[in-house]
Design goal:
- The structure holds 2 protein chains of 2 kinds.
- Chain A is of the alpha/beta class.
- Chain A contains 8 helices and 10 strands.
- Chain A has a 6-stranded mixed sheet with strand order 6-7-8-3-9-10. In chain A, strands 2-1-4-5 form a 4-stranded antiparallel sheet, with helices on one face.
- In chain B, helix 14 packs antiparallel against helix 23.
- Chain B starts with a helix and ends with a helix.
- The chains are: A alpha/beta, B alpha+beta.
Chain lengths: 256, 852
């Protein structure tokens, strides 16, 4: 088993310190005969300013890994640390504080609040934390995600791609240590997917945002600095700056 | 976060409005009750205070103890010579004597004009222009001898005109008097169903058979004399049988009776408001629970964005606060409308209340808002706590379910404990002796609340089998749609149980009331049949309960064919330090009444004489009375008699027809200024025949307020009063049923919303709109029927407990009525389904399938 675990090689910023570290993560669902091991010992580091893609066939454990990295789920064993804080030591309130400060989310189904307009959705994490949004920063963000002309539109008045751009804006607004993106293009057509991927890439390159993205689309993974291939609860391969074509080949190897 | 919570409400207008209706109705009942009773109170108080407005002090006859208004005993009148004595005092500026009493105006049909139970007030107006006269002349002139002034509303209802000669009857036979004027009470627009008639003093003294006597002297002090000084000086000349009070005190005294009536009415109606709010709290809790289950994704997203549990709690509670506040404000205004409606309702059942416009006190606003908001917040607490348990991971996981609370496994034991505690409270309240009224009420009320909560929780376990059984007809009637409806109603037992529970409470109370009423009616019928086995006719007042002059019974005694007339008079006396109801019978009663004598025989009634009495068994037991025991009884006139117990009877199940102590009419009359009969029973040759009825009717022509009824008719008449009260009860309880109806609507709307995709799928595979509607309708009816079955069962249990305690009611199940309630529940289900079913059937199939 141990030979398949790779120590991730820093791709872009070799000297950057890891913002997320996971050691020997396992996750078992259920008990006894019906127990399923979704993760069977995963260790990884995510470095600052890096876009990491997690790929794998359905049931490979990639969603479970992301949930555990983001503190949404707890590992059966192993430890996750975000910005140096071990998640296992946190109670619900500490976890809430950690989310406010360090974590941003982008969901497959956008998860916008229907009664708030685009701008309100974007600044929501700040209002929740009781902070005053910096006007200039919000304007810049709206510009970055290309929604300045639609800032007062409700989600129901926006297209899928526009909604996802609101969601990305929302994830960026408090400049979190790390953004977790869960199949961000899973619910979008290919043209829109391209725009969203470009936006995510730009967030990393221009805003030095760190992102972990779970996806099963080779094209999405291709923008990543680093791609981790998961199969059967283990990281089976890691590649840096790999093309969509090579990703498809790697996936086929995994039997998808 | 604040703004966010409020936006949440705006974003779900329909759901919020449907949830809020429950609170609106409850608050409206509470506010309406206060507005109604305050308005009546105001109207009465302006009547009482205006009546005394011109006086500084009032002299009246003194009774030995406080008398109840309708007891049959009245304060004695006093000699009119006192007026001269009072007038001659230097401290007295003006003084005027008055007599008053019940005076019936006779309608065109020859019958006394009586509106429900309202009084027919007659009084002297010695001088229309005097400061003591509270009435205003609308038209005509103040009465001279042989004349009468009547109130405006009676004049217009009966088309009486000035100059017309009408019949007036007080104590003696009918007098013919000329209407000299129409009057009204200064500021009060209606005085309820009361009739007013004013006469000059000698005419009034003649009508009320109080020649040379006065009931009251109104006094105004001379210039510069203070009221205390005036009172002190008059006290010097007062004979022992009179008393003086300041006008203010006297009006409070006058208002005592109505005050206690209004305070009773207020508590009574507030009880129903409480029930509506209680039912409303179930509806709110349930609607919010469903809404929160549907908003899990939203709460989870908030959590991932950094919202803490307490922020989630606060935002849900804030929504509840805003909704509760808005609903309470709307309810307050709806309460004003409801008060108006209640006035009309009471009017419609012949119980016209005085009305001087609606009164909105600050207290009403404060209590209504507070109660509405607090109930909403309490009902929201559990759903809000559930919302805090939504895990952040629900933001990314399809179909995540709320984790069970830590306490979930204690739910069944808790339900059982609550139910048992509730019944224990009820039983303790009913059967433990030596409890104060407050304790009993607390035990019963607390017990009932716990029982309802407990049964509501327990009912979750019953949903499966009940839905399966009650849904069986649906599967036959509705085909596939019906079968799906049955499955749907069993799919989320918690939700179905909460929805049905709201209806359960209303139906349990309706059932309880109807069983008690049926018990009272059947016990009463049985008792009347037993007790007056030998009587052919009963003579009563037109309204069946006012007293009637003895002259009427005397005249009946002289009617051809009448063999005996048994009179029953009623009053109040004081014995062993307690005010008790007393009755009196004349010797013929011995042959008419058939009682179960534990000591003595019915011949006792014929030989009560000057010092005999009989008592019921309970009274004898509690005061250790046996044959020959002396009972010291003080009459209203202040004299005490020692009556000897000559008989003891066991009262029948339907209740005793007598007071605690019954004596001869001879003794009663010697201590009662103007004795009257409560009713008389007549035995005639040939029994009940058309000729006998005609003979009695002919005799009673001279007594417009009396009527002769066969024994059966007498029973029906007595019961008709009960049905009016019952109808009011049903209307008031219907309110809580309406609240639960909205609860069903709300649940269905939310359910349809939740099952959008599923309904779209059903449509896609060939279900017609009609079938969709049918499916929703059947589910609604099944839910309503579950509520009805549990409610009716619980109602029967509660009624049995109550009847087991109250020994004058027998348990009799009004099966027909219970079936009607079941049918009503089906109707509630059908009505509740109309709107949600329409929404479901109009879903666009394509959109429904795409909806996520």
């Amino acid at each position: 088993m141990s030979e398949t675990i790779t120590t991730p090689a820093p791709a872009r910023a070799p000297d950057a310190e890891p913002v997320v570290t996971a050691t020997e993560l396992t996750r078992r669902y259920g008990e006894g005969d019906t127990a399923v091991d979704a993760l069977r010992g995963v260790s990884l580091n995510v470095r600052k300013g890096e876009l990491t893609a997690v790929m794998g066939p359905s049931g490979s454990g990639k969603s479970t890994l992301m949930h555990i990295l983001a503190g949404l789920d707890r590992p059966t064993s192993g430890e996750v640390a975000i910005a140096g804080t071990k998640l296992s030591t946190l109670n619900d309130n500490d976890m809430t504080r950690l989310r406010r400060q360090h974590i941003g989310f982008v969901f497959q189904f956008f998860n916008l609040l229907p009664m708030l307009d685009a701008e309100e959705n974007i600044v929501l994490p700040l209002s929740i934390a009781g902070e005053k949004p910096d006007k200039a920063w919000v304007n810049e963000l709206l510009d970055q995600v290309g929604l300045t002309p639609r800032r007062t539109h409700k989600p129901s008045e926006l297209s899928g791609g526009q909604q996802q751009r609101v969601a990305i804006g929302r994830a960026l607004v408090n400049k979190p240590t790390i953004i977790f993106a869960d199949e961000p293009t899973g619910n979008l057509d290919s043209k829109t997917s391209g725009e969203i991927l470009e936006l995510l890439e730009r967030s990393v390159r221009e805003l030095q945002q760190t992102i972990v993205m779970v996806t099963h689309e080779p094209r999405a993974a291709a923008i990543a600095d680093r791609v981790l291939f998961l199969d059967d609860g283990l990281i089976v391969r890691e590649a840096s700056n790999i093309s969509a074509h090579d990703i498809v080949a790697a996936m086929e190897e995994l039997g998808e | 976060m604040t703004a966010f919570a409020l936006r949440g409400l705006l974003g779900r207008k329909l759901r919020t409005a449907l949830t809020a209706i429950a609170i609106v109705l409850g608050v409206a009942t509470v506010a309406g009750t206060y507005v109604l009773t305050d308005s009546i109170n105001n109207a009465f108080h302006s009547i009482f205070f205006e009546t005394r407005a011109g006086s500084d002090a009032v002299i009246s006859g003194k009774s030995a103890f406080d008398l109840s208004g309708d007891s049959g005993s009245t304060a004695p009148s006093f000699d009119e010579s006192l007026l001269q004595k009072v007038r001659s005092l230097p401290e007295v500026g003006e003084a005027q004597g008055q007599v008053n009493g019940e005076a019936h105006l006779i309608g065109k049909d020859g019958k006394a004009i009586v509106y429900g139970g309202a009084p027919n007030l007659g009084f002297s107006i010695a001088d229309g222009a005097s400061r003591f006269n509270p009435l205003q002349l609308v038209s005509g002139a103040w009465p001279k001898p042989g004349e009468v002034v009547i109130d405006k509303s009676t004049a217009s209802k009966e088309h009486f005109k000035i100059g017309q000669v009408i019949g007036v009857q007080a104590q003696g036979p009918v007098d013919r008097l000329r209407v000299s004027g129409i009057v009204k009470f200064g500021s009060v627009s209606t005085i309820g169903g009361a009739t007013l008639s004013g006469f000059d003093l000698p005419t009034a003294q003649h009508l009320f058979e109080k020649p040379g006597k006065l009931d009251e002297i109104a006094v105004a002090s001379a210039q510069g004399v203070s009221t205390p000084k005036l009172v002190a000086s008059i006290k010097q000349v007062l004979p022992a049988d009179t008393q003086i009070r300041t006008a203010k005190l006297q009006s409070h005294e006058d208002a005592k009776e109505t005050d206690s009536f209004i305070s009773f009415l207020q508590k009574f109606l507030l009880g129903f408001g409480g029930v509506a709010l209680f039912v409303g709290s179930f509806v709110i809790a349930n609607s919010l629970s469903i809404t929160i289950a549907q908003r899990m994704r939203e709460f989870a997203t908030l959590r991932t964005l950094g919202a803490s549990r307490s922020q989630v709690l606060r935002s849900v509670m804030l929504e509840a606060l805003v909704m509760g506040t808005l609903a309470s404000i709307v309810g307050l205004f709806a309460g004003l409308a409801l008060a108006k409606g209640l006035f009309s309702l009471f009017d419609a059942v012949g119980f016209t209340l005085p009305n001087n416009g609606l009164t909105l006190e600050t207290r009403t606003i404060v209590v209504a808002l507070l109660v509405g908001i607090v109930v909403t917040l309490l009902a929201s607490l559990r759903p809000a706590l559930r919302a805090t348990r939504v895990p952040p991971i629900a933001a990314v996981r399809e179909g995540a379910t709320l984790p069970e609370s830590r306490w979930a496994r204690y739910r069944l034991p808790a339900a059982i404990v609550l139910t048992v505690l509730g019944f224990a409270g009820l039983l303790a309240g009913l059967f433990v002796s030596n409890l104060g009224t407050g304790q009993i009420l607390l035990l019963m009320l607390g017990g009932a609340l716990l029982v309802f909560f407990g049964v509501a929780l327990l009912s979750v376990r019953l949903i499966g089998p009940l839905a399966w059984t009650l849904g069986w007809p649906a599967t036959k009637l509705g085909g596939a749609a019906g079968a799906l409806a049955r499955d749907n109603s069993r799919r989320n037992p918690q939700r179905t149980a909460s929805t049905a529970s709201a209806l359960m409470i209303g139906l349990a109370l309706v059932t309880l009331v109807s069983i008690l009423a049926a018990g009272i009616v059947s016990s009463f019928r049985g008792a009347v049949k037993d007790i007056w086995r030998n009587a052919d006719y009963a003579i009563t007042a037109q309204n069946n309960f006012n007293p009637i002059p003895i002259a009427a019974s005397e005249a009946v005694g002289k009617t051809p064919g009448v063999t005996s007339v048994a009179d029953v008079r009623a009053g109040e006396g004081l014995a062993y330090g307690h005010k008790i109801a007393i009755t009196a019978v004349n010797p013929p009663a011995a042959s008419v009444f058939n009682l179960d004598w534990t000591h003595g025989t019915s011949t006792v009634m014929a030989h009560l004489g000057a010092d005999g009495a009989f008592v019921d068994k309970d009274y004898a037991d509690s005061h250790h009375l046996e044959i020959g025991s002396p009972v010291p009884l003080t009459f209203a006139d202040g004299t005490q008699e020692l009556l000897n117990v000559e008989g003891i009877f066991d009262p029948p199940t339907g209740g005793s027809p007598f007071g605690r102590v019954t004596m001869s009419t001879t003794v009663f009359d010697s201590h009662t200024e103007q004795p009257e009969n409560l009713y008389s029973f007549v035995v005639m040759n040939g029994g009940q025949t058309a000729a006998n009825q005609a003979a009695l009717d002919k005799t009673l022509k001279a007594f417009p307020n009396a009527k002769a009824a066969t024994r059966q008719k007498f029973i029906d008449n007595q019961i008709s009063g009960l049905s009016s009260i019952l109808n009011i009860l049903y209307v008031l309880l219907a309110l809580s049923v309406v609240v639960s109806l909205f609860g069903i609507v709300n649940t269905l709307v939310l359910t349809v919303f939740e099952r959008t995709r599923e309904i779209g799928m059903l449509r896609a595979i060939g279900m017609t709109r009609r079938q969709v509607r049918r499916m929703i309708r059947h589910e609604s009816v099944i839910t309503a029927l579950i509520g009805a079955v549990i409610g009716i069962a619980l109602g029967i249990i509660l009624a049995s407990l109550l009847i087991a305690r109250v020994d004058f009611i027998v348990l009799s199940l009004p099966v027909g009525q219970l079936i009607v309630f079941g049918v009503a529940a089906i109707l509630v289900g059908i009505i509740a389904a109309i709107f949600p079913a329409r929404r479901a059937s109009r879903l666009n199939v394509l959109q429904a399938l795409q909806y996520e």
